[in-house]
Amino acid sequence: MPAHRNGKVSIVGVGSVGTAIAYACLIRGSAASLALYDVVAKKVRAEVLDLRHGSQFVPHCQVYGSDDLSVTADSQIVIVTAGAKQKPGQTRLELLAANAAMAADVTPKLLELSPNAVIVFVTNPVDVITHAATASADAPPGHIFGSGTVLDSSRFRYLIAELADLAVGNVHGFVVGEHGDSEIALWSSVSIGGVPAAHFRKDGRQIFDPATRTQIAADVVNAAYEIIEGKGATNLAIGLSTARIIEAIRGHQHRVLPVSTLQTGAYGLGEVCLSLPTVVSADGAGQVLEVPLSVDERDGLFASAATLRDAYRLVSS
């Protein structure tokens, strides 16, 4: 089977996030095989053994690992989580320089080993890291992108569903822009069981008034900081959301997900990586959908883009 359809998923970096992604993939049956890479050989060996020992209870999946990057050869999908992790009180953009340099170094090496692979960056700050990676290698369009605001959008939908007292699958909505402090919750296009948020009623009462919408958007932005302060890292939900991205690629699902890509014209944006609703398939990140935006949302998106362009200039000049 050709590498671009063989179901091999490699994970570069097996810290708390990389391990959570591997675990989520194993449980969900997201990969035909999992290859783990980390510079710490004992850590890789331990995680591989721990995952293998649960093989009886999950769909069949070969799991192996190494401290040699060649373990990732012939992958269909490569997930990169390696890099310094976010510390309590630290913004994602403060992680910038070291992780951007890592991405620019490792991406050509990964593509040399797996020329047809789709490479998904999860390392923060993911938008700038994705931009650095995209600039470092001559990959087919859409074959390098970032996990973006897929997790942020899940947090957004969860908070809306909780207040509406509905299953989260009944809520549709996106967070776009930076995966970070300047991200924008697109309230104007939220649908709750087919009802726009502004018209949704519970017991005859409007519950998504402007103050509530502002608070939910703030809670989405601050969610990672609260989790990091409490347990040191966010890992479980990003594991699940990354597994979902992997499934969209492996299954050629043409799933619309808010991943981070180098923008080439949507909303007039260019020369910046940020998240917008994007069609994800076996070919990687494809068409970007231009959801109608309110004036405030459009202004927020442009401001987020400016923030990310400035951040990227710090590492590209």
TrEMBL record:
Entry EC no(s): 1.1.1.27
Residues annotated with Phosphotyrosine modification: Y225
Positions bound to substrate: Q86, R92, N124, P125, V126, D127, D152, S153, S154, R155, T234
Swiss-Prot/TrEMBL catalytic activity: (S)-lactate + NAD(+) = pyruvate + NADH + H(+)
Keywords for this protein: Allosteric enzyme, Cytoplasm, NAD, Oxidoreductase, Phosphoprotein
Residues holding beta-D-fructose 1,6-bisphosphate: R157, H172
GO biological process terms held by the UniProt record: glycolytic process; lactate metabolic process
Annotated pathway: Fermentation; pyruvate fermentation to lactate; (S)-lactate from pyruvate: step 1/1
Location(s), subcellular: Cytoplasm
Molecular function (Gene Ontology), one example: L-lactate dehydrogenase (NAD+) activity
Binding site for NAD(+): 13-18, 38, 43, 83-84, 99, 122-124, 147
Short name of any one Pfam family annotated for the protein: Ldh_1_N
Active site per database record: H179
Regulation: Allosterically activated by fructose 1,6-bisphosphate (FBP).
HAMAP family: Lactate_dehydrog
Family: Belongs to the LDH/MDH superfamily. LDH family.
Assembly information from the UniProt record: Homotetramer.
NCBIfam families referenced in this protein's UniProt entry, alphabetically: L-LDH-NAD (TIGR01771)
Described purpose of this protein according to its UniProt entry: Catalyzes the conversion of lactate to pyruvate.
Protein name as it appears in the record: L-lactate dehydrogenase
Species of provenance: Mycolicibacterium diernhoferi
